[in-house]
Write a structure and sequence with these properties.
By secondary structure, the chain is α/β, with parallel strands linked by helices. It contains eight helices and seven strands; from the N terminus they run H-H-H-E-H-E-H-E-E-H-E-H-H-E-E. Helix 6 runs parallel beside helix 8. The longest helix has 19 residues. The structure holds S-adenosylmethionine (SAM). The site of S-adenosylmethionine has 22 residues, from helix 1 and helix 4.
Length: 219
């Protein structure tokens, strides 16, 4: 069982200073050299699945939304995050798309007035949530509930179980898990697949380096 305080730890790290460093450190260096999943791969996955009415949960700096090609000229973009600094950074970055923002904890149930969506993304959010995939399962339930029938939920998450990290990845895993920035020591591809199957149909999951890229549709 995890608490609201545990959930806050996974979001609290993202302040103005860390968000300034995020694109260079996480998207530029760590993705390539620690996790062996270049940001370009995450972006391609985003392009494949993003719809005209899109909800992004766990927005960070908004990099992927900023570099993504939407299927329509004027998409509806809704941003949801526990951390107001992330919402401010991402919404400013994609202000040309006029995003709507909501501060919320994805582990608690929520209702969004803009729902239903064609697509919901959760990129690099699951490894920040506390506990194991059983504890994180409500996040998928709450996100899936925002979709229209057949709508797609997609994302990526760094795994900690059933794979071998390189030296840099091993150090980052230890430091981030100790600080509560990550909670992914028990996160395996099999457990992720099982959690997604509880809430979605037509699950697709593949590994690139130490990252699981996944998608599934609302039943
Ligand atoms: C690692 S960043 C991901 C940023 C972006 N999606 C990307 O892929 O670059 C994780 C984001 O999830 C947010 N977050 C963490 N825990 C959350 C929760 N329980 N509910 C909603 N957002 C959360 C953090 O505030 C942060 O903005």
């Amino acid at each position: 069982m995890t608490s609201t305080t545990d959930a806050a730890a996974g979001a609290a790290y993202y302040n103005r200073a860390s968000l300034l460093a995020y694109d260079l450190w996480v998207l530029g260096l760590s993705n390539r050299y620690a996790w062996h999943c270049p940001t370009e791969t995450l972006l391609q996955h985003f392009h494949q699945h993003v719809g005209a009415r899109h909800l992004d949960i766990g927005v960070g700096t908004g990099y992927l939304l900023d570099h993504c090609h939407f299927p329509v000229a004027n998409p509806l973009i809704v941003l949801a995050d526990l951390n107001p600094a992330s919402l401010a950074a991402a919404s400013h970055r994609i202000r040309h798309l006029h995003p709507v923002t909501h501060q919320l904890n994805v582990l608690e149930s929520f209702v969004l007035p803009e729902a239903p969506f064609d697509s919901v993304s959760m990129n690099y959010l699951l490894h920040c949530l506390p506990g194991n995939f059983a504890d994180k399962s409500p996040a998928i339930a709450h996100a899936a509930a925002q979709l229209k029938r057949g709508g797609v939920l997609f994302g990526a998450t760094i795994l900690g179980e059933g794979i071998t990290h390189n030296a840099l990845g091993g150090i980052l895993m230890r430091v981030y898990n100790r600080q509560g920035i990550f909670s992914n020591r028990e996160d395996s591809a099999d457990a992720l697949q099982q959690m997604l199957e509880q809430h979605l149909k037509n699950i697709k999951l593949h590994l690139v380096g130490r990252v699981a890229l996944f998608s599934g549709q609302r039943r």
